[in-house]
């Protein structure tokens, strides 16, 4: 990953420069979390941690960066010298990629010199917000596909090369099986998928000739696009002719793709035509601006579809294109003493959780069935039974007593200075992990429409700390 140190909003440099002139030895603790789930879902699939960690490891300023910052006439020379000699000196803990996470839970916590931690805000949020958003959208789409492979092919509609490439990575974390983006396939070990566009067919005198020529070049990868002219009158009949010739020559035809029209009705008719022609093994792929709701509708109508190719609605999360993750100060450390900090707001929902924290997932004893999460202060132990408070400040009956549970911490140490504390799993290992973690949370929580709320609590100690800081602010 290229150096992203200048991917920083100006106010972060201004604040860091101010820290350099005033409180040079103070440490900061920042949390990354979100308050609202895209598409009215109940959880987000965490993604982007590997890129965030690598960006932190590679954080430095070139001479040209220093000269540009000097040209702004905003910063003292001692600050610019600090940046020129920058050495990462923070500790990072995070929830693993692929984990389903819920509002107000810290996805990532970074602790270190306040001057340093302030500089990372935009970069970290940019990476985690984007990949988590796309992984979450991919989870919704692959959930609706009910086990059928989904190919990500939205690169041309993504908001730039990085969004296309890292979006493809995130899409696989969320459940996609392949990508049409060759750069992403090469970079992350993702199967590259795709065959032809309409231009291939239009380049030949007629559709049948175009199919025959394709089969000559790719006899073992004959997936044919059948909607250039007329799916049922020419596309499928011509595909059947070519598939029969391939089979006669010892090859296995792959399938057809329908990219327009009434896909439900066209796929049903195409399936019958293929079966009647003795080609039941030929797959039918659907594309054309699909999303989770269209996919679910097609399958509910009984459309005999085997695969989906999904582009713009996935790679841009078009129906809900923002994950509003935030980066908030939770504590400062002065002379070795942790001092909790809180953001106060007129909206109770925006009041932050203070202090250095850990997130625990609670399971029914001896099982892998999760029933709640608890956000606790890092120095707390979760003794049983435990009284907790709902994290949602607008909830009613907020206090709850939990008798028996197995508690598993979600955040792990990932970086201590330049010392990496984790191995980076492959994208498909993350996908496998994510699928396992999804089986652990209730099915009702995973519904696409009106999902059940997964309970998120804070400990009474953390709730009391938040209240005490609110009261102190009000005085």
From TrEMBL:
<dbReference type="InterPro" id="IPR007229">
    <property type="entry name" value="Nic_PRibTrfase-Fam"/>
</dbReference>
<keyword id="KW-0662">Pyridine nucleotide biosynthesis</keyword>
<comment type="function">
    <text>Catalyzes the first step in the biosynthesis of NAD from nicotinic acid, the ATP-dependent synthesis of beta-nicotinate D-ribonucleotide from nicotinate and 5-phospho-D-ribose 1-phosphate.</text>
</comment>
<dbReference type="InterPro" id="IPR006405">
    <property type="entry name" value="Nic_PRibTrfase_pncB"/>
</dbReference>
<dbReference type="GO" id="GO:0005829">
    <property type="term" value="C:cytosol"/>
</dbReference>
<comment type="pathway">
    <text>Cofactor biosynthesis; NAD(+) biosynthesis; nicotinate D-ribonucleotide from nicotinate: step 1/1.</text>
</comment>
<dbReference type="Pfam" id="PF17767">
    <property type="entry name" value="NAPRTase_N"/>
</dbReference>
<feature type="domain" description="Nicotinate phosphoribosyltransferase C-terminal">
    <location>
        <begin position="357"/>
        <end position="465"/>
    </location>
</feature>
<dbReference type="InterPro" id="IPR041619">
    <property type="entry name" value="NAPRTase_C"/>
</dbReference>
<dbReference type="Pfam" id="PF17956">
    <property type="entry name" value="NAPRTase_C"/>
</dbReference>
<dbReference type="GO" id="GO:0034355">
    <property type="term" value="P:NAD+ biosynthetic process via the salvage pathway"/>
</dbReference>
<keyword id="KW-0808">Transferase</keyword>
<dbReference type="Pfam" id="PF04095">
    <property type="entry name" value="NAPRTase"/>
</dbReference>
<dbReference type="InterPro" id="IPR040727">
    <property type="entry name" value="NAPRTase_N"/>
</dbReference>
<protein>
    <recommendedName>
        <fullName>Nicotinate phosphoribosyltransferase</fullName>
        <ecNumber>6.3.4.21</ecNumber>
    </recommendedName>
</protein>
<dbReference type="InterPro" id="IPR041525">
    <property type="entry name" value="N/Namide_PRibTrfase"/>
</dbReference>
<dbReference type="GO" id="GO:0047280">
    <property type="term" value="F:nicotinamide phosphoribosyltransferase activity"/>
</dbReference>
<feature type="domain" description="Nicotinate/nicotinamide phosphoribosyltransferase">
    <location>
        <begin position="150"/>
        <end position="340"/>
    </location>
</feature>
<keyword id="KW-0597">Phosphoprotein</keyword>
<dbReference type="InterPro" id="IPR013785">
    <property type="entry name" value="Aldolase_TIM"/>
</dbReference>
<feature type="domain" description="Nicotinate phosphoribosyltransferase N-terminal">
    <location>
        <begin position="6"/>
        <end position="129"/>
    </location>
</feature>
<comment type="similarity">
    <text>Belongs to the NAPRTase family.</text>
</comment>
<dbReference type="GO" id="GO:0004516">
    <property type="term" value="F:nicotinate phosphoribosyltransferase activity"/>
</dbReference>
<dbReference type="InterPro" id="IPR036068">
    <property type="entry name" value="Nicotinate_pribotase-like_C"/>
</dbReference>
<keyword id="KW-0436">Ligase</keyword>
């Amino acid at each position: 990953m290229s150096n992203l140190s200048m991917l920083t909003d100006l106010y972060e440099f201004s604040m860091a420069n101010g820290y350099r002139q005033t409180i040079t030895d103070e440490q900061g603790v920042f949390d990354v979390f979100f308050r609202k789930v895209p598409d009215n879902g109940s959880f987000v699939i965490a993604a982007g941690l590997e890129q965030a960690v690598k960006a932190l490891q590679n954080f430095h300023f070139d001479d040209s960066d220093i000269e540009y910052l000097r040209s702004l006439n905003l910063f003292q020379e001692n600050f610019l010298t600090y940046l020129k000699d920058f050495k990462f000196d923070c500790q990072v803990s995070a929830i693993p990629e692929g984990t389903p996470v819920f509002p107000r839970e810290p996805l990532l916590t970074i602790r270190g010199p306040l001057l340093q931690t302030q500089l990372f805000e935009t970069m970290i949020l940019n990476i985690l917000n984007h990949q988590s958003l796309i992984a979450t959208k991919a989870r919704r789409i692959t959930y609706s596909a009910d086990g059928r492979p989904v190919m990500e092919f939205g690169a041309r509609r993504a908001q730039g090369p990085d969004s296309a490439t890292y979006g493809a990575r995130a899409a696989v974390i969320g459940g996609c099986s392949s990508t049409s983006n060759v750069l992403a396939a090469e970079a992350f070990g993702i199967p590259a998928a795709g065959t032809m566009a309409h231009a291939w067919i239009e380049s030949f005198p007629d559709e049948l000739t175009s199919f025959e020529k394709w089969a000559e070049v790719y006899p073992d990868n004959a997936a044919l696009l059948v909607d250039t002219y007329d799916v049922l009158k020419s596309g499928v009949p011509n595909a059947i002719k070519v598939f029969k010739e391939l089979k006669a020559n010892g090859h296995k035809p792959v399938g057809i793709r329908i990219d327009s029209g009434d896909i439900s009705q066209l796929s049903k008719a195409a399936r019958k035509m293929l079966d009647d022609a003795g080609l039941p093994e030929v797959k039918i792929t659907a594309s054309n601006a699909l999303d989770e709701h269209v996919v679910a509708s097609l399958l509910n109508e009984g459309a005999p579809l085997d695969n989906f190719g999904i582009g713009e609605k996935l790679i841009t999360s078009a129906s809900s294109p923002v994950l509003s993750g935030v980066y908030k100060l939770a504590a400062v450390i002065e002379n070795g003493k942790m001092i909790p900090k809180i953001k106060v707001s007129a909206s109770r929902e925006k009041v932050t959780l203070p202090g250095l924290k850990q997130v625990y997932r609670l399971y029914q004893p001896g099982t892998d069935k999760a029933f709640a999460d608890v956000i606790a202060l890092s120095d707390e132990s979760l003794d049983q039974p435990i009284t907790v408070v709902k994290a949602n400040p607008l909830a009613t009956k907020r206090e709850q007593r939990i008798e028996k549970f197995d508690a598993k911490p979600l955040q792990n140490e990932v970086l201590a200075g330049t010392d990496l504390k984790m191995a980076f799993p492959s994208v498909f290992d993350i996908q496998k992990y994510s699928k396992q973690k999804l089986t652990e949370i209730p099915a009702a929580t995973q519904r696409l429409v009106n999902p059940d709320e997964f309970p998120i609590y804070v400990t009474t100690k953390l709730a009391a700390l938040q209240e005490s800081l609110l009261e102190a602010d009000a005085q």
